[in-house]
Amino acid sequence: MAVADEGSRHVAESGFVDRVRHLADAANPAFAAGSFLVPLAFLAASLALVSTELLFYTHVAAGAVWFGFALIFPAIIGPTLGGLDEEASAAVNRTLIPKAVFFLVGFSLTTVLSGTVLLTPDLGLGYGFGGTWSGLALGLGWGLFAFGLAVPHRLQLSAYYETLSPDPDASRLESIEKKNLVVGLFEAAVMLVLIVLMTGFRLG
């Protein structure tokens, strides 16, 4: 494993808030903020306007972005980076991963929050569904969100911190890419189950 320089070691060993600040700076603070504020603004507008239709399309659009990235990142972007030389791959990772993390967390959070409102009749904007199946859908959605924070994002950040070292370990980066592919396929499978459940709710 490559030995990190002082800067990368400091980032990797710093506290949560410091790491988030570092990632926001690396991603561009405006981009990092927008990745949360833009999708959540549509959720807020849905609630303010009491519009189930806007809420539904916000949920679908945010979910489509989440689903798409769950497939594209490990299946296309990862292997493409693996085909580049080490210096070019590391440079792209240092630029791409901070942006991807903020972008995906913002859209996945919007997806599960909007889905929760849609499937919670007491909140007043839902479809009125309740019971076991809607509870299962919500549980899967929030479980997938937590899984995303705990596994794929951590893998991506591991690759990011590795690229900050003066001599990135190519074998470790390749191992992370392979794990990302497996994780992405798992996420996609769970998302397909959620789509089937939600389509059933929508069609009655």
In DSSP terms (H or I, runs of 4 or more residues), the helix count works out at: 8
Main pleated-sheet profile: none
Q: Average pLDDT, to the nearest integer? A: 81
Q: How does the helix and strand content classify structurally? A: mainly alpha
Q: Provide the succession of SSEs.
A: HHHHHHHH
Point out poorly predicted stretches: 1-7
Can you count the beta strands?
Answer: 0
How much of the residues is beta strand, in percent?
A: under 5%
Count of individual domains: 1
Question: How much helical structure, as a percent, in the residues?
Answer: over 70%
The dominant shape is globular
- Rounded to the nearest angstrom, the radius of gyration is 19 Å
Terminal Cα span: 54 Å
Keywords: Membrane, Transmembrane, Transmembrane helix
Protein name: DUF2269 family protein
Organism: Halorubrum distributum JCM 13916
Transmembrane segments: 29-50, 56-84, 96-119, 131-151, 181-201
